[in-house]
Amino acid sequence: MPLFLNHNSFFKVLIIILLGLFLASCNTTKYVPQGEYLLASEELKVEGKGMKRDVFEPLVRQQPNRTIFGIFRLNLWFYNLSSDKDRRWDRWMRSVGEPPVILDSMSVISSARRMEYYAGQRGYYGSKVNDTIVYSKRKAYVSYDVQLAQPYRITSIDYDVMDKTLDASFIVDPKKRLIKVGNVFDGEVLKGESERIAVEMRERGYYQFYDSYIKYQADTTVGDRGVALKLLLLKEPTGVGSTTRNHRRFYVENLVVNPEYNPEKALSEPSYNTGWDTLNVQGFEMLCQECSEPGGQSYVKPELLTIANRIKTGELYNEQEVNRTYANFANFRLFKSINIRFSEPSADSVLPDSALHPLKGSIILSPFKRQSYTWGGEVSLSGNGLFGMALTGSYQHKNLFRGAEILDVSLTGAFQKVQVSADSAPENSYELGASVSLNIPKFLVPLNLSFYRNVFSPRTQIALSGDYQQRPDYTRALGALTFGYSWRNLGQMTYIYNPVDMNIINMLEITKDFYNSIKDNPYMLNSYQNSFLLGSTFSAIYNNRAVNRHRQYLIRGDVEFKGNLLWLGYKLADAPLIYDPTTKTKSYEVWGTKFAQFAKFDLTFTSLRAINASNSIALRALGGIGIAYGNLTSLPFDKMYYAGGANSLRGWQIRDVGPGAYPGDSVMSNRLADMRLEFNLEYRFNLFWKLEGALFLDAGNIWAINNEDSRSGAVFNFKTFPEQIAIDWGLGLRLNFTVLVIRLDYGMKIHDPAITNKYFVRPNDWFSQGYNSLFIALGYPF
């Protein structure tokens, strides 16, 4: 355990090494040939309105060596550590490093011309780009000054649809078209308009329509930097000389679906593609290898393919329905590859252009392995010697009943050394949890309502879980049952609705010391009671990762209501209130247990923005509040908020922050509350090989909102709120194996609201006991 026992000294040495690397990075021209120059920096400035710097940056042909924090060229430094000899060490240093980027003056000139051309393509004809190179000590500093001209704007739009058989209403529709009078004459917009028209044509049966059939004529002689624009929709070439014909429409004549195709066997076994059985399913034919054998059955039920397939035989080809079919099969999470193909069948006679032309379609699906196993874990260590660890193992079956039903079974075990009170010795805490869930790719509803068929990626989930926790101050058991639905739209929105969300909390034991610490706090005393929770939850999630890899956003809102229908039912039935002598309150009970009544609201915003190929900024902001009322005026402690840990405020151990300025001189279990605010910021950068680094800043806390809470400094107050924000910073190392990320984070406290005699923690104390925490975990923190 040398790493855990001496982690403060370890990180002191690490920081000293990093400082040494920064100083050593000054010698960056070791492998720059005489007479050549290292490309030290590039500066890009844009003068004028209409175009920003980031659209020109990809046009620069040469980029300097990668940097960390914008100054330290770690990869170049590794390369320079190697010698001219061909030893193993030198080869390895050159492989993980990066050779110096030598200035190519012709690339500078070419980059400037590319930017001028690009500005012209975007409508800013006549723009100039001045390039400058400054040489100093075998280094070159390049700058580009983009001077934007006034843009050309569209003054009129005309259309020439040469194929008179086409309905051009959707082409000229001002609500749909992207080109508009008064807009900048932008080549990117013209390209987008061509693609829009081509997509709509392919959704109307014109299978072979491409955006290359759309051309533009621009007359710039109208004066005052205006453009008279004409859109030409050309006919389709016949492939014989220069003759053309009207565009042809296609319909799907037949469709074959193979849900169990194995590409490896197809390559290694010559007879693999022969001898398949064919089943006639509604709207298509299904291939099966073992259906004719005794006891044989298809890999999936035919009904599953019917649910996913949107391509209808006998109907016009529609690219939107093809894309919907792709998405439906992908959302089953059952197939690793999905190929949808169409071809024109050979015919004895040539159909006239005006006739509908047939297409043969095929859907080839290659399934994943049905079963898989995964594991995860986390280790945490604080400066005062407290540590914890957790391990999770899970089993998944992706096709339980041949209908893409996903069965998940998981087990979780955790151990933690906790300090129950400020003057007590660390004691052991154990937790064991298990869960099983079944995810079904359709809505299980009592009524067959037609609109359900148009919902994208519908799913029903049934989950059952249990958790047992034994701490020095209490022991509790938790059981949960959830039944709900999830679905998506064609954009980036996902919705989750659980009409049944039930929890049973059983406080098996509370120690005398813990009870004495909360008996005079009615709010906390109510929280640590047996509770029955029944209600519903709703979540809405926006995620743009699929459409924007460089600027990713995730916004999630969660709403939870518990106990309202139960309370209303008891009220209408005029049921008696049961008096509890322990809490001195009256409430309704279910099977001798009080049921909770509350509302919770949570909102999370996460952003990941790539600065360049090696550097990115990750940000997360979240807030939540729980309001108890009616039957039980305290939130059950399992529904309360906590902070600290590997994925929260990393200068603190889990559940070791707040609430508010609460000093924590009582039991650690009291660090729960009704409200949470948190902000996390990470600068992530590539080091070498699969190693990544991070510099992070965390801020936030939890608060009580009920004035009955008697914990000192725990209740939220707008006047004291700013000084009760806990702040930490730290360094992180991550091994990224793509499918697995191993993370090590070391957080140090900057401001601890529980310490009243000083606002900021001195840097000398960052490595002292009680002012830092070390975490080893899997995956990124957010």
Instruction: Extract low-pLDDT stretches.
Output: 1-6
Mean pLDDT: 88
Portion of residues within helices: 10-25%
- Which secondary-structure class do the elements indicate? alpha+beta
Quickly count the helices: 14
Strand content: 35-45%
Total strands: the figure is 33
Shape category = globular
Strand order of the largest sheet: 14-15-16-17-18-19-20-21-22-27-28-29-30-31-32-33
Note the gap between the termini: 28 Å
Rg over C-alpha atoms, rounded to the nearest angstrom = 33 Å
Describe the structure.
The model is unreliable at 1-6 (pLDDT under 50). It is globular, with a radius of gyration of 33 Å. The strands form 7 sheets. Strands 14-15-16-17-18-19-20-21-22-27-28-29-30-31-32-33 form a 16-stranded antiparallel β-barrel, surrounded by 4 helices. The protein has a 5-stranded mixed beta sheet with strand order 10-11-9-13-12, covered by helices on one side. The protein is built from 14 helices and 33 strands. Helix 4 packs antiparallel against helix 5 (88-96). With 782 residues, the chain is α+β, with helices and mostly antiparallel strands.
